[in-house]
Amino acid sequence: MNQEINELEEGILLDQPDVKAIYFSPTGATKAVIENISCGLNQNNPIKVNLSNVEERNNFFSNFEHFVDSTDFFLIGLPVYFGRIPGFLIEHFQQIDGKGKSAIAVVVYGNRGPGIALNQLVILLNQCNFKIVGAGTFIGEHALSSVFPIALGRPDEHDVSLATEFGAQIYEARDKLKGIKGEDVPGKLDALLRITPEKPPKPTVHLEKCIDCGLCVQSCPMGIIDSETKLYKNKAAEKLCLGCMSCVKVCPQGARSVEFSSPMKYITGKLFLKEALNSRKEPFTLLKNT
Ligand SMILES: Cc1cc2nc3c(=O)[nH]c(=O)nc-3n(C[C@H](O)[C@H](O)[C@H](O)COP(=O)(O)O)c2cc1C
Ligand code: SF4
Ligand code: SF4
């Protein structure tokens, strides 16, 4: 009887890999994609590391060696900002050693384009000594969707099924996958992104609507909102603002919003986001079988 239970437990352990689902996801789309890839990897309940939370992020990067040995797959998802991965995370990743463990690199963008983000992430994770067994770009509702209705509701059912299928393909082929390198996922920054300075949109705060719930303070991935005033802590803090819209999304009172003047809205919609507003992009996934 005991032997049967042991065999059953071993079977369960073998069938359910140890997955660390690691995501930076201020408005939730990247998290949703990563969780669905994990389901496809046969792990519905991965250990989650939310890099958008300052404490969790610091803890993860400073204690990374404790995570490595037990892990079968690191599933790493970042959003695309200005065609790139969020720059401030690069130096955090550069501190860690993946010890050759399998990682899946995923970037999530708001239907404009992934730019060079996947290429950057794959190169970075290779430098950190991970073996990249899968790479993909997925689409999530644009963080500025309250002004520009782009990719509303994405990842949607179709995206979710592709994410799950991607995870399942990796799981099926896990013993015969070759490592993916930067040259396998070349990226391109379009002309507009090449010439435009990265200037994130800053939320406007309407203090008269604020009920002092503190959700914006807790949700800010940069820890730059003052818990008393609900404004930036200082000028240096304001410079760190990513324009990620996490604080706007969590505010229950609509006391924080992103606002564009009419001419800026017109120019941005016509110049930067025209295609994103009018056509649907689809996920891209890559794995390399031996
Ligand atoms: C500052 C900023 C820059 C962005 N740049 C791009 C971009 O270059 N291409 C694109 O398709 N989406 C872009 N987006 C949209 C995000 O990639 C998209 O909203 C993504 O779903 C955010 O991920 P999250 O929901 O996990 O936070 C940008 C969003 C922000 C806030
Ligand atoms: S203050 Fe800036 S960085 Fe912080 S949550 Fe708001 S938009 Fe994101
Ligand atoms: S989330 Fe909104 S209501 Fe809550 S403290 Fe922040 S600004 Fe005020």
Question: How would you describe what is shown here?
Answer:
With 290 residues, the protein is of the alpha/beta class. The chain has 2 domains: 2-191, Rossmann fold; 204-259, 2-Layer Sandwich (Alpha-Beta Plaits). It has 13 helices and 10 strands. The protein has helices at 2-15, 29-40, 54-62, 64-68, 88-93, 117-127, 157-172, 191-195, 215-219, 235-240, 246-250, 262-272, 274-278; strands at 19-23, 47-50, 73-79, 102-109, 131-139, 177-178, 204-205, 256-257, 284-286, 288-289. Strand 4, helix 6 and strand 5 (131-139) form a beta-alpha-beta unit. Helix 2 packs across helix 7. The radius of gyration is 20 Å and the shape is globular. The model is unreliable at 1-14 (pLDDT under 50). Flavin mononucleotide is lined by residues 25-30, 79-83, 108-113, 115, 140-143, 200, 243-245.
Largest sheet: 6 strands, mixed
Average pLDDT metric: 94
| CATH topology title of the largest domain | Rossmann fold
CATH homologous superfamily (4th level) name of the largest domain: Flavodoxin domain
CATH architecture tag of the largest domain: 3-Layer(aba) Sandwich
Helix content: 25-40%
Work out the strand percent.
Answer: 15-25%
Instruction: State the CATH class of the largest domain.
Output: Alpha Beta
- Please provide the count of β strands: 10
Rg, please? 20 Å
Q: What order do the SSEs take from the amino end to the carboxyl end, as H and E?
A: HEHEHHEHEHEHEHEHHHEHHEE
Counted up, domains total 2
Distance between the termini: 41 Å
Low-confidence stretches: 1-14
